[in-house]
Amino acid sequence: MSDKKIHIWAKKAKPNSQGVIKLSPKAHELLVDVVNESGRSMRDVASQIIIQAIENELIVYDREEGD
Length: 67
Known about the structure:
The protein is an alpha+beta fold. Helices cover 42% and strands 12% of the residues. It contains two helices and two strands, in the order βααβ. The chain has helices spanning 25-38, 42-55, and strands spanning 6-9, 59-62. The longest helix is centred in the middle third of the chain and has 14 residues, at 25-38.
């Protein structure tokens, strides 16, 4: 996909009251790289990536027909 957007398969999430997520090994490795470069906490870095991706409309929700 050459539109430079983040494409995510859409489905309803179940809320997690603890705010805990599980990352894939690759995502964790890349997050650690950013954390090491920035000197910020994993929580700060992950939060900023998510917030900026949404606020800058970098995410496209790919839905199957009928959703």
